[in-house]
Amino acid sequence: MKHARTVLTALMSAAMVVSVSSVIAAQDTTRPNIVLIMAEDIGNDLACYGTEGVKTPILDKLADSGIRYTRFYTNSPICSPSRTALMLGMYQTSSNGHNHRSKVEGAPGLHYLTHYLRQAGYVNRLGSKVIKRKSGKTDINVQLDERMFDKSKPKSGQPFFQQIQLQVTHRQANDSRWQDLRASKKNPVKTAEVEIPPYLPDTPEVRLDWATYLDQIEQADLETGLILTDLKRKAELENSIVIWIGDNGRCQIRGKGYLYEDGIRCPLIICGKGIERGKVLDDLVSGIDLTATILALAGIELPPQMQGQAFLANPEYQKKDYVFCARDRWDEIVDCSRVIVGKRYKYIYNFMPEVPFDAGQKYLDADNVRPLLPLLREMHKRGKLTSEQSYFFRPSKEIEQFYDLDADPWELNNLAASSEHQNKRAELREKLFQWIGWANDHGLEKAPDGSWKPKQEERTARSR
Whole-model pTM above 0.85? Predict the structure, then answer.
């Protein structure tokens, strides 16, 4: 706790208590450094988001010294499509980067986010030497004929953009590091203190797995402190804006890889130079909006390719009524689903309902990736799960899923067939399909009857 206070005191004293629009005001011509810290595979599971049992003092103080967003959505629940959307500032379905690790050639005229920052005088840095694990991951599906990051160091007074990946929260196949970390901690997360979602059975095994996941969150908090201390030591923190996000949802069933809230709703904290302090916002914002915001904070005009809206340093900012996300191929599992999320209601359309949620994916069946899956499958087989807990193990998906997030935040009650909700369901369905056409979705095509369906080549695509 003392280390957390020391690190964040420096950051808070560096933050100017002014409106965000002043970041690019005429009287301050120095462009801010922008540090993007991206933790892998996490939900809104920090103490400052109300999560029980976990301690994240660095990130809690970071949130107190800036703005915490409670409804930030990544544009895909899978890592490489999510990063592709973020790095291009456009939907991965629009850029043809929607299939996991597909490595497609980008269309002429497309550029990475870092191209525009470089043009404005920024040096683009990748990773941090103070993090033991590799922290320079890119993993972008769309390949362009330009360098994404620079090897050179910024000159004196030159601003920089730095992307740092925290992989400690990522589950690796046949890797015991999660268990090793828990065994090494003096005060691991207490299993009795964690809150288990109702779509999981409350068993000792589930509690232990959830607490072990939160141990990694605490480690990510410590690594964030190392990064901030390093920036302060280099005298770079004072002129920096720090952005802390998750790249996609948590590494649990119904999390990463799925369009439930646990798969696409992630933490977003922004603080530093010119950022208002102590704010909590429930604005609907997405990954491509964050890309636009990074450019706005750097004083760069939004390029034509980008489809998002800057939510800071933008006098024309308007709150969104909806955000959109997409699920496509993940490793060898070919799937296709689209979602629209509003303030209260959420609608998912599954174009391939024959593909079950539990599709037998090799990665998820590997040791230590989803260690609860064998237990849950056995409990389902023996009738030991509730209907809500068994939903994930159905042999197929329902074509439509419709949820009232206010009344049902865990998305347990599908209202797609509810007579009371047909008007709202139809409204969101129409808006979703309008977005599919507007965004030029590369995973779908129109059938002769005017309906949308997955392209034939999408159905037979396989991981390369």
Answer: yes
Distance separating alpha carbons of residues 401 and 392, to the nearest angstrom: 13
Q: 341 near 263, Cβ under 8 Å?
A: no
Q: How far apart are CA 330 and CA 244, in angstroms?
A: 25
* Backbone φ and ψ of 176, nearest 5°: -100, 15
CATH of the domain at 46: 3.40.720.10
**Residue 320 domain-assigned (yes or no):** no
- Return the exposure string of 103-125: e unless at least 16 CB atoms fall within 10 Å of the residue's CB, then b: ebebeeebbbbbbbbbeeebbbb
User: Where is average pLDDT lowest: 25-34, 46-55, 172-181?
Assistant: 25-34
209 vs 110: CA distance, rounded Å? 42
Whether residues 361 and 408 share a domain: the answer is yes
Residues 44 and 168 in one domain: yes
- Summarised one tens digit per residue, pLDDT across range 402-446 is 999 999 999 999 999 999 999 999 999 999 999 999 999 999 999
Residue 464 lies in a domain: no
C-beta separation of 227 from 130 below 8 A: yes
Domain boundary among 314, 345, 366: 314
**Distance between CA atoms of 197 and 260, rounded to whole angstroms?**
13
What does the pLDDT look like over 309-367, one tens digit per residue? 999 999 999 999 999 999 999 999 999 999 999 999 999 999 999 999 999 999 999 99
Reported residue count of the chain is: 464
254 lies in which domain range? Answer: 2-314
248-280, pLDDT tens digit by residue? 999 999 999 999 999 999 999 999 999 999 999
Q: According to the model, what pLDDT value does residue 457 have?
A: 75
Report how far residue 3's alpha carbon sits from residue 20's, in angstroms, rounded to the nearest whole number.
28
Whether residue 120 is found in the same domain as residue 177: yes
Residue 330 CA: distances (Å) to CA of 202, 265, 311, 444, 461: 29, 18, 30, 16, 10
Q: Is the separation of the CB atoms in 111 and 144 below 8 Å?
A: yes
Name the one residue in this structure whose structure tokens are 């964690």.
194
116 three-state secondary structure? helix
Q: Is the same domain home to 104 and 225? A: yes
